[in-house]
Each structure stands twice: as structure tokens, then as C-alpha cells.
């Protein structure tokens, strides 16, 4: 194994992808870029998600929570909640939901959802006491965290013993043809559709989406980072080759 492809030592920082310098100069500028991107696209996010997921976005989130065994009355933390789609689905299934996001723009849209407590913050420094939640969820934001090792440690810390993690993500399809098709769809068709529908930064958001999926660390590295954070039974269930649901449990 060369130094380049050797896995990092367990517990060391794990950025989900290398710096994408087409969008920002270096790692130090990444958080600001991500915040600005989501602030400026917050008003369009739900519409884009419906186009991007071919209309399945809300149902997929609700089904994933059911499969994760969410029970009425459980305390749920939805990290990187965006406009609150996953948080709202958890509340509809009886969860007592707290939702956190980096972007004030996203939170301003999310706050129209009733019955959820919203907090501004980052995934790798959660402003919550230890062992407070039964379920920590994060939808389509793993690629935007600065460091998966620190983020998953925080998830383990705020979970009570026996509590679960559910991470929804898009994974890079295996095989050359599926990858080319996904790349064409995400990188070209969706931005073009979005621009036709309305102007704004939708095209930039979708191109960035496609690039972060393309460059994201593989599922095996994500599972290893969950394990290194002290979470057990880590697994990844994939549907249609791209829709991934990672789950794990605090022992
Ligand atoms: C693609 S949206 C996903 C929103 C929502 N979870 C969903 O299922 O639709 C990604 C969200 O992650 C947030 N985000 C990005 N990096 C973050 C971080 N380090 N900590 C907290 N939130 C972050 C963004 O502000 C954005 O709202």
C-alpha cells in the first residue's frame, strides 16, 4: 500500500472529501462557502429536492425513520436539518424533535414547521448535554461536515446508551455507466432544469452536490469512522445503488 491509499489511523480527522478548490481556495474557507451556499439557496431547497429525488424525497425520509424504529415519545436530534424535512417527518411519527443547522437562511425557512425546537450550530460541536437523545439523524449533509471523526464522536456523546444514529446520503454509484448517468443527471440535467424553472444559485448548489458525491470517501470509510467513534452495529443499506441509509447504535 502506498502512503496515498493507506487508510488514516483510527481516530484521526476524516474530511468527507478533499478540498474542492473550484469552489473555495482551501479547507479553511470551506465552512464559509457551505454556509453561504445554503443561506442563498434556502428558499429554493425544497423545490430542488423534489426535482432531484424525482418526487420521492419526503416519502423516503419518512420510510427511513420507520425502518430505524422511531417510537412515539423518543427524543430525536436532527443534525443539519436544512428546511426541516426529516425533522418534520420525525415529529409526525411522534418524536420530540430538536433540529440543528449551520445556516441561518435554512433555519429561517425551517422555523415555519410547528412543534420543533431549532438551534443554530455545527455538527462537530453540538450544544447539547451528554446522553440526551434516543435517535440522532442527519439527512444528506455528511458530505458537508468538516470532519466525520469529530462529528460521529459528538453523535455518540449526545446519544443515551442504546440510542441510534440514522444517516441518509447519496452514494457514488458503482460501475462506469451508472456513474456517468448519475454524473450527467446531477451535474447537468438537474442544474439546467433548475435554471429553467428560476434563476439564482440552484445550478451552483447542484453542481457542488454532484462533485461532493463524486469525491466522497467510500461507505467502508464512513462505517469505520462510526465504529471508531464508539458506535456499534454500523451498517449501510443501499437502494437503487445510490440511496444509502447508514445506521449504528451506542452500546
Ligand atoms: C443538503 S441540506 C440537507 C437538509 C436536510 N437534512 C434534508 O434532509 O433535506 C444540507 C444542510 O446541511 C447544513 N450543514 C452543512 N454543514 C453543516 C455543519 N457542519 N453543521 C451543521 N449543519 C451543516 C447546511 O446548512 C444545509 O442546511
Task: Describe, in plain words, how this protein is organized in 3D.
By secondary structure, the protein is α/β, with parallel strands linked by helices. It has a domain at 44-171 and 216-249: 3-Layer(aba) Sandwich (Rossmann fold). 42% of the residues lie in helices and 20% in strands. It has 9 helices and 7 strands, in the order αααβαβαββαβαααββ. The protein has helices at residues 27-41, 45-52, 57-67, 85-92, 104-110, 148-158, 176-197, 202-215, 219-228; strands at 75-79, 96-101, 117-120, 133-139, 159-170, 232-239, 243-249. The protein has a 7-stranded mixed β-sheet, with helices on both faces. The radius of gyration is 17 Å and the shape is globular. The two termini are 33 Å apart. Residues 1-5 have low confidence and may be disordered. The site of S-adenosylmethionine has 20 residues, from helix 1 and helix 4.
- Cofactors, ions and other ligands in the entry: S-adenosylmethionine
Strands, count: 7
Shape: globular
Low-pLDDT residue intervals, each spanning 5 or more residues: 1-5
- Rg measurement, Å: 17 Å
Please report the number of helical segments. 9
Overall mean pLDDT score? 88
Range of helix content:
40-55%
Name the beta content range: 15-25%
As for the CATH topology of the domain at 44-171 and 216-249, it is: Rossmann fold
Structural class determined from secondary elements: alpha/beta
Q: Could you say what the CATH architecture of the domain at 44-171 and 216-249 is?
A: 3-Layer(aba) Sandwich
CATH homologous superfamily designation of the domain at 44-171 and 216-249: Vaccinia Virus protein VP39
CATH class of the domain at 44-171 and 216-249: Alpha Beta
* Secondary-structure element string: HHHEHEHEEHEHHHEE
- Biggest sheet, in brief? 7 strands, mixed
Strand order of the largest sheet: 3-2-1-4-5-7-6
- Taking the alpha carbons of the first and last residues, their distance comes to 33 Å
Amino acid at each position: 500500500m502506498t502512503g496515498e491509499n493507506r487508510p488514516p489511523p483510527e481516530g484521526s480527522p476524516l474530511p468527507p472529501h478533499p478540498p474542492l478548490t473550484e469552489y473555495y481556495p482551501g479547507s479553511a474557507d470551506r465552512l464559509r462557502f457551505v454556509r453561504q451556499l445554503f443561506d442563498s439557496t434556502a428558499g429554493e431547497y425544497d423545490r430542488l429536492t423534489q426535482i432531484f429525488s424525482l418526487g420521492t424525497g419526503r416519502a423516503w425520509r419518512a420510510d427511513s425513520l420507520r425502518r430505524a424504529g422511531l417510537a412515539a415519545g423518543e427524543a430525536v436530534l436532527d443534525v443539519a436539518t436544512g428546511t426541516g424535512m426529516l425533522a418534520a417527518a420525525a415529529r409526525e411519527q411522534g418524536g420530540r424533535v430538536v433540529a440543528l443547522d449551520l445556516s441561518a437562511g435554512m433555519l429561517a425557512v425551517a422555523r415555519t414547521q410547528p412543534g420543533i425546537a431549532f438551534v443554530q450550530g455545527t455538527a462537530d460541536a453540538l450544544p447539547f448535554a451528554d446522553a440526551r437523545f434516543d435517535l440522532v439523524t442527519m439527512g444528506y449533509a455528511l458530505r458537508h461536515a468538516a470532519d466525520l471523526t469529530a462529528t460521529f464522536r459528538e453523535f455518540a456523546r449526545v446519544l443515551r446508551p442504546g440510542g441510534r444514529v440514522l444517516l441518509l446520503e447519496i452514494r457514488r454509484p458503482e460501475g462506469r455507466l451508472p456513474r456517468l448517468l448519475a454524473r450527467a443527471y446531477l451535474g447537468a440535467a438537474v442544474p439546467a432544469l433548475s435554471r429553467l424553472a428560476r434563476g439564482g444559485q440552484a445550478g451552483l448548489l447542484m453542481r457542488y452536490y454532484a462533485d461532493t458525491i463524486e469525491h466522497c470517501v467510500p461507505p467502508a470509510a464512513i462505517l469505520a469512522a462510526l465504529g471508531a467513534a464508539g458506535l456499534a452495529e454500523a451498517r449501510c443499506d443501499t437502494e437503487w445503488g445510490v440511496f444509502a441509509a447508514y445506521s449504528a447504535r451506542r452500546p
